[in-house]
Each structure stands twice: as structure tokens, then as C-alpha cells.
Amino acid sequence: MNRRALRRWAAAAGFRVLIAAILFYALFPFYWAVVSSLRAGSALFGTSLLPLHPVWGNYAAVFRAEPFARNILNSVLVATLVVLISLTLSLGAAYALGRLRFVGRRMLLMSILGVSMFPQIAVLSGMFALIRRLGLYNTPWALVLSYLIFTLPFTVWVLTAFMRDLPRELEEAAIMDGARPLTIIRRIFLPLLAPAMATTGLLAFIASWNEFLFALTFTLTNSERTVPVAIALISGASAYELPWGRIMAASVIVTLPLIALVLAFQNRIVAGLTAGAIKG
User: Fold this and answer.
1) Is 18 part of a structural domain of the chain?
2) Of 102, 149, 232, 237, which alpha carbon lies 20 to 30 A from 181's?
3) Which residue range forms the structural domain that includes residue 199?
4) Domain count along the chain
5) Residue 174: CATH number of its domain
6) Tell me, what's the pLDDT at 278?
């Protein structure tokens, strides 16, 4: 083996080791949550990498002790509404910002980006007053309204970038045929933007599904809470008596839908992330 081949082999081996380390770092916490969810009692504090005596009762106890099924439905409802509203509004905004020329367009884009820079805690008191004034406190609509603060800027920016790269000849041909802007968006741009919308929609869904601060502040009863708050409020008599098995089981349950969504839309996600990277 000559020196060049040896360097090539060493580079390939180092790359494989790096990938393995990244996968281990990313996947081991979820694996440990699964292992811990199958343990009970003192076994929870053991260091064995495999559950020697699996305890499946933790999963049943999650639904028996808490209204966890209702919490999951709340999260699904809120995240779905946020995605639908965000994509609908963002599609029209992206068409205006990406295809039309008007005074103040760049300033408007900068303003949309600036809104997303504020941390949640900075707008929490103002949002609380607004939600109370609108009579939405302790309802799913309070979460939908508050989640749009961080999903709309992201979806508008991403879809505007994709809309800007679409060929203008398609739009001009549709205008020559007498198509109105709404028809152009629905019949021409919507199919072309499907990968980008799948990517942004999934990321908005994950952000809404995992959000904790607004969900904790704007909901009061167990029946209206979403899964992050429901998991955080699973309690025991003391910190040492927390039902860690149930907490881990609940964490695994709420992670599985996200994994299923990513696997189901992985082709569109990759297409959406790579579209526009190469121009020919």
C-alpha cells in the first residue's frame, strides 16, 4: 500500500469514526430513555445498558394516572393548526415578498426577521395580557396564537427564498393566459413548493410540539395542557420519589410521532433542504 492510498484509507476511517461518534451522541439519550422506561424501583438507578427485567407497566401507568391521551390530542391539534395557518399565511406572504416589487419590501423582510430574534420570555407578559383580553386563556387557541410568533417568521423567510428562485417565465406565461395571482399560487407555485412546504411545515410542527414556556403559562387545567407540560408536572412525594419510569415512558411516547413524521416525509425533507443549492 503506497502512501497516497494509506492517507485515503486513514481519511475514510476517520470519517467513519466521526459519523459513529455523532450518531452515538445523538441517539444514545433516546436509547437510554427507552431503557429507563422499562425499569422500575431501584433498577432505574442501575448502569446496565439493557433492561434485564423489562417492566411494561410504566407505559400503561402514564395513561392511567394522568389524562395523557387528552394531552397528546391537545398537542396534535395545536401543532396541526399552527402548521396549517403558518403555511397558508406564509405562502401568500412569500409570493408578495418574493415575486412583487414594492417600496419597503426589504424593510418588511427585516422586520419579520427581527420579530423572531426576541426570546419568548421577552414577549411573555404582553402575550399574556393579550390572551386574557381576547378571552383565550386556557384554550388551545391561546397556544396557536402564541406559537405563530416563532413559526410565521421562519416559514415566511424560507418560502420567500424558494419563491424567489422559481423561474419567472412560469408566472409570465400564466399571466398571459389570464390567470389571477391566487390561481398562480394554487396551480403553479404550490406544487413546485411542496418540498419546501413539507420541510418548513415539519420544523414548525416540531417546534410547536416541543414548546414549553407558552404552554405552561397559557394553560391552567390538565385537560388543556400539551405533552411537554404534562410530562414536567408528573410528580412524586419528593425528588427522590419521582416516577422516573413513567416520565421516561411518556417521553418515549411523545417522541415516536416525530420520528414517524420524519421517516414518512424524509424524501421531501431532503428535497426541500437541497433545492436551490445547485443552479444550472
Assistant:
1) no
2) 149
3) 67-233
4) 1
5) 1.10.3720.10
6) 39
